[in-house]
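Hey,

Quick one before I head out. I ran the complex with adenosine-5'-triphosphate overnight. Inputs first:
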Amino acid sequence: MDVSSPTDFIREIIEEDLKTGKHGGRVATRFPPEPNGYLHIGHAKSVCLNFGIAAQYGGTCNLRMDDTDPSGESQEYVDSIIQDVKWLGFDWEDRLYYASDYYEQLYQYAVQLIKEGKAYVCSLSADEIREQRGTLTEPGKESPYRNRSIEESLDLFRRMRAGEFEDGAHVLRAKIDMASPNITMRDPVIYRIKRAPHYRTSNKWCIYPMYDFAHCLSDSIEKITHSICTLEFENNRPLYDWILDQLNVDCHSQQIEFARLNLSYTILSKRRLIELVQKGCVTGWDDPRMPTIAGMRRRGYTPEAIRNFCDRIGVAKNDSVIDMALLEHCIRDDLNERAPRVMVVLHPLRVVIDNYPEGKVEEFDCPYHPQKTEMGSRKVPFSRVLFIEQEDFLEHPPKKFYRLSPGKEVRFRYGYFIKCVSVVKDPNTGEVVEVHCTYDPETRSGFAPDGRKVDATIHWVSADHSMPAEVRLYDRLFGVSDPAGEGDDFTKFLNPRSLETLTSCRVEPSLSGAAPGSRFQFERIGYFCVDPKDSSSKKLVFNRIVPLRDSWAKVVGQKKK
Ligand code: ATP
Ligand code: MG
């Protein structure tokens, strides 16, 4: 039995409820996205929390489409949500529900409220309702329709449903208290007329329940015990309880609020993410720079890394901002364990080994992981003409440059020591276009028999055997840590260098059949993923998931100085 103490305040509540037998020892949660956009990493926090709690306490977690607002909802979003939650590693078995399936039941609940004098049809305009709502310091005014007879309200509500009135002509309001210190309780609107086809119910309905009415009742219909939501719903909790109390339902779920995830250097709001997609700031919801699950999956993030991130950030009662560096740390941590190592040259510079026989090819056996022999190895061909990274060579090196330069010896990863003897320059630009070296045949093992040492080991590929590839260097989508906090036009803060596309990279031949979505460590560079959409056997395309080291810490550090 698990005797460890609960790790957060929600689990504390649940354990207490289990002890007191509050819900008969049941734990039932749900993840209730509105299908009006793709899920993002903030939603992942809620997914992990709800499914995680259900698993931990032997309960169930439902996936519920909270689809009570026809505008903006679509089947495409439903499909993406299903795919994303599955990919994150969670299983709702046969419990996929739609709030839109409850429309009739919700309507009957509303009728019940009217019959009991707890709801009335109000014929004020939306503006008038807003004006009469009062403020934090002043009570609201009662609607002139508040004391309409039950019969009249019932009749009007029925006719609202029948489509007899224009949008906005009437609404149904709960009859609570216009003087309540909690503005949410001042006769909130619970139904409105809205003529818009719904992606599931089409034109069957022209009235739709408001969130506050639909959500608590959907929870109750599904017999949810703990309805976990984000802090902005704290003021709505009394309304949640009021509705369930008035209707005297069998299952009164308990709403518990936690702090939403905020992440630096990005934006977690569907409304704003939609804007990025619609304005073409990104290539789509699954652009690898997007904080969406679809974008992160395409970029190469693993579900394990995301789940681990959600575990680490924990669950709290007050809002905070998590550093993007933590998310990047989690993916590095995961891929460090399991990504095979390969050699790729992003910016190729030709190297000719003058004393290596023309036409000769050797195959070096290179392990896929330095610590994990069980991951096996692959053969990497070595020949007279090779490519190295341009940045690994400098003709006139500064003092502490340890890599290749004229007269200097370095080690080739998994192979020989080589020494630069001369360079070839482009006569027009003066740029070094080819480096000539000699190799020491005695150093095949990576060590010199005479014990001499080199300062650096650099990676390489064989010119004839390597293959071309496109590599997309993705970086953070925004250049500032709080793009949403800087006013409304957050698109001004997009990082102009969030994508750099390199088209003349060279990859070692073992990557020829790399499966779409597979991930690698490019030695000395970072973690990369075969782009699931654009890569093919004819044209390999890799996405950078994350560099080996965090270069942003440096940038931020410099700014502070
Ligand atoms: P957004 O603010 O991005 O538009 P939303 O809250 O409108 O999101 P929903 O589809 O209603 O999106 O969210 C489904 C569930 O995910 C809700 O329970 C919500 O509280 C939770 N959720 C949404 N954003 C976050 C976040 N940043 N951190 C944690 N949970 C979140
Ligand atoms: Mg919402």
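The chain has a mean pLDDT of 96.

Talk tomorrow,
K.
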